[in-house]
Amino acid sequence: MVNVAVQFGAILRDLRVANSLSQEELAYRAGMSVPYLSDLERGRSNPSLAMIVDLALALGVHPSQMLEALKIDAAGQPSRRKRPKE
After folding, report:
1. What 3-state class would DSSP assign to 33?
2. I want to staple 44 with a disulfide (CB 3.0 to 4.6 A). Which of 17, 39, 61, 82 is the partner?
């Protein structure tokens, strides 16, 4: 299974290209730096929920469209995130 950040980056890149936008233009519209956008597209960074919304608005899509194509297989996979102590 491909990492979720890598999948999101590919979806983001596909949407950007489909809208005929350069990284510079999308970064400007979404209010972020070009290096950060590049890191998102390469799966090296995970966007916050607010950033997903900003990107969706800049691309003219609903935020859910950016997430619906993610392939998630959690069966048998323990979470790698730390759980809060009770």
Report:
1. coil
2. 39
